[in-house]
Amino acid sequence: MSNAAGGLLLELEGSPARRRKERIVRGIFFALAAMSVVISATIVLALIQEAVQFVGAIGVGDLWQRGWFPRRGIFDVRTILVGTLVVTGIGMLVAAPLGLGAAVYLSEYARPRIRKLLKPILEIIAGIPSIVLGVFAFSWINPQIVDRFLCGDASFFNLGAAGVGVGVLVTPLVASIAEDAMRAVPMSLREGAYGLGARKRSTTVKIVFPAAISGIVAAVIVGMSRAIGETMVVALAGGATGGSLFSADYCQPGQTMTGAMAALAIGGDQVKGDVSAFQSLYFVGLVLFLLTLGLNVLSGRIVRRVRKKY
Amino acid sequence: MATRAESPSVTEVVRQSLSKRRFDFRSAAFEASLLLMLLASLAILVILLTDVVRSGAGVLTERGGDFIQGSLSSLAERAGVWQGIVGSFLMMAFVVLVAFPVGIGAAVYLEEYAPDNRIARLIDVNVRNLAGVPSVVYGLLGLFLFVEVLEPLTGGRSIISGGLTLSLLVLPLVIITSAEALRAVPDSIREAGYGVGATRWEVVRSHVLPSAAQGILTGTILSLSRALGETAPLLLVGAVTGFLSTGSQTLAEQLQGEYVSLPTIIYAWAKEPDTDFRALTFAAIIVLLAVILLANLAAIILRNRYERKW
Predict the structure, then answer these.
(1) Are A203 and A162 in contact (CB under 8 A)?
(2) Of these four, A153, A164, A197, A284, which has the most CB atoms within 10 Å of its CB?
(3) Beta partners for A233?
(4) Is ipTM beyond 0.90?
C-alpha cells in the first residue's frame, strides 16, 4: 500500500533528467536576473571609490571655491549645481504645463480616434535622441524663443536654450506617465460627478485630477530626474566647455553637472594627464547618481503611499 | 390667473434649463488651452523636422551616396558618415547579442520563476532604479569597467567597450518591456501546459515565450533605437571626436581600435566652428533620425496591430 503510493509519487516527480534540466535552466535565468544587481553594485563601487580618491586628493575645502575650472584645479560644486538647477527649473517650467495639459486632454477630452492618432506622435517625440534636440536647441530654440522672448541679447550658447531643449525632451515622458495615472481613475468616479450635475471641466479639475494626483506628482518628479541627468542638450547648447564662474544667469553660457562631465570627457587625453580632473568626473557622477536615484525612489514612494485602491 | 400665465410653470423652467445649450465660456477656454498645450508639444516635432530637413537636405541631394559612403575629413566638402554608420552598426550588434538575451532571460526569471521573496523583490526594485540612472553615469561605468579594468579584453577605448556600455544602458529597458509582455500572457496558457505534465521550462519555451514574442520584439526595437541615439556614454568611453583613419583592417582590429558612431559624429560636427559643417551636421541628423523614427514607428505599429486580446 505504502509502496504503491511511494511509486506513484516517484512517477509524479518525473524523470531525473528532466528535473535536472529544469534546475539548470532555472539557475541560468536567475544568474541573468542577478546580473542587474551586479551592475548596480559596480556602478556604486566605481563611483564611490574614485570620488573618495578625488576628494582626498584635493581636500574638501577646495569643493567650495569660485567657479568650475577643472583644468586649473578649481572644482566648485556649487557652480555646476546652480547650472543644473537653472536648466532643470526652466525645463520643468516648459515640461510640466505642456506635459500635464497634453495628458489631461488626451485622457479626458480627446475622442478615441484622435487619441489613437496623437499618442503615437507623442511617443515618436519621446524617441528623438537628445543629441538632435541639442543641435535644435542652439539652432532654432535659442534664436526663435530664448533670444526673442526671454533675453533680448542672449549669448549664442546659453543655459536658457539648454533648459527649453531639456523641457521639450522631457515633455512626452511627463505626459505619458500622467496620462496613465488619469486613465487609471475609474469611470464610476466621473459618472458620479456627472450624476450630481457637474460639468466636464469641474469633473476633470475636482475629481479626476485629485484622484490621480499621486501619479501626476510622480510624473513631474521623474521628469525632473530625467532633466537633471540630461547631458547632450546641455553639452551642445549650454556652452562654457572650458569652465564657468558661479552664475545663475540663464542668458549666458553655463555649466551643469552633466555638461561638466561631457566637457571633461571630450578633453580625452589632456584629462588623462591630470589625475584629479579625471577623477572629478566620478565625483560629479556620484552626486548626479545620488540625486536622480533619490528623486526616482521618492516618486516610487509617493505612488505607493498615496495610491488609492479602487 | 393672469400672473400664473406670465410666470412659466416649474416643469417648464426645469425643461428649459436642461435643454437650453448655454455656451459655457470658461469650459471652452479650459478645453482650448489643454488642446493648445498638446498641439504645442506636437508642433515642436514638426518644427524640428522642417528645420532639420531644410538645413540638411541640400547636402544629401547634392552628394547623396558620396556623403553616406564618405569618410571623416577636415574638408567639409569631402566628409561623410560611413565610419559612423559602421561604428553604430557594430555596437548595435553588441546590444543584440548581449542586452537582448540577458534582458529577456532576466525578465523570464522575474515573471516566470521568481518566488515572492526578498531576493526577487530586490532584483525587481533594482531594475526599476537602474532604468532611471542617467545615461552619462553608464558612461562612467563603462569607463571604469570596460576601458580600465577589462582593458586587455576590450582594447580600452574601442567599439567593444562602447557596445558593451550601450548594452548595459538598455538592459533595464529590455527587462521591463519584456516582463510586461510576459505578464500579458494569461495564466490559463501556463496551466494548460502544466496540466499535460510539462515542466516550467517546457511551458516557457513552447508557450509563454511564443505568445509574448510580439511584445518582446516591440520592446527590443525600442531599446535598439534608444541605444542608437545615445551619445553621452560614448563620449565617456572614448568615441573619437576628431578624425579617424581606417584602412584595411580585420574585424578584430576594427573592434579593438578607435571608433566613431553616428551620434558622436553629429556632436563633433555641431561643435565645429567652420560654418561649412553646419549643413553636414543636419544631413547627418537626417540619416540618424530616419533610422530611429522608422524603427520607432515600426515598433508602435507592431504594438497597435498585434495588441492581442486574450
Answers:
(1) no
(2) A284
(3) none
(4) no
Give the A window 37-96 contacts with B, CB below 8 Å.
37, 39-40, 42-43, 46-47, 50
Q: What's the pTM value of the predicted model, to 2 decimals?
A: 0.88
What is the three-class DSSP state of A69?
A: strand
CA of A66, closest CA in chain B: separation in Å?
A: 25
- Tell me whether residue A28 is exposed, middle or buried, using C-beta atoms within 10 angstroms of its C-beta: 0 to 12, 13 to 18, 19 or more: middle
Write the residue in B24, B41, B52 that is nearest to A102 by C-beta.
B41
Q: CA distances (Å), A170 to each of A44, A96, B88, in order?
A: 26, 9, 25
Q: What is the pLDDT of residues A281-293, one digit of tens each?
A: 899 999 999 999 9
Question: How far from the centroid of its chain's Cα atoms is residue B74's Cα?
Answer: 32
| Selected residues 230-249 of chain A with any CB under 8 Å from a CB in chain B | 230-232, 235-236
What are the boundaries of each domain within chain B?
61-309
Which residues of chain A make contact with B35, given a CB cutoff of 8 A? 105, 109
Q: Do A136 and B108 touch (CB under 8 A)?
A: no
To the nearest whole angstrom, how far is the Cα of B258 from the nearest Cα of chain A? 13
Contact across the interface for A18 and B271, Cβ inside 8 Å: no
Rounded distance between C-alpha atoms, residue B178 and residue B184, angstroms: 10
Task: Give the helix ranges, DSSP H, for chain A.
Answer: 2-13, 16-58, 77-104, 112-126, 130-136, 159-183, 187-195, 200-202, 209-211, 213-229, 232-237, 257-266, 269-273, 275-306
What's the CA gap between A259 and A159, in Å, rounded? 11
pLDDT one-digit tens code per residue, A160-171? 899 999 999 999
**Among A202, A221, A218, A211, residue whose Cα is nearest residue A182:** A211
Interchain proximity A132–B113, CB inside 8 Å: no
Q: What is the dihedral of CA A118, A119, A122, A123, to 10 degrees?
A: -140
CB-side exposure of B288: number of CA atoms within 13 Å?
Answer: 32
C-alpha A285/C-alpha A279 separation (Å) is 10
Residues of A in contact with B266 (CB under 8 A): 131-132, 135
Contact (Cβ atoms closer than 8 angstroms) between residue B140 and residue A47: yes
Nearest CB among B101, B238, B263 relative to A131 is that of: B263
Answer for the pair B146, B154: CB distance below 8 angstroms, yes or no: yes
CA terminus-to-terminus distance, chain B = 68
- The more confident residue out of A233 and B273 is A233
Whole-number Å distance between alpha carbons of B264 and B232: 8
Q: Which residue has the cell 519555451?
A: B205
Across the interface, whether the CB atoms of B42 and A228 are under 8 A apart is answered: no
Q: How far apart are CA B68 and CA B284, in angstroms?
A: 9
Which residue from B255, B277, B262 is spatially nearest to B229, judged by alpha carbons? B262
Neighbour count for residue B225 (Cβ, 10 Å): 22
Percent with pLDDT over 90 in chain B? 49
Residue B93 CA from chain centroid, whole number = 16
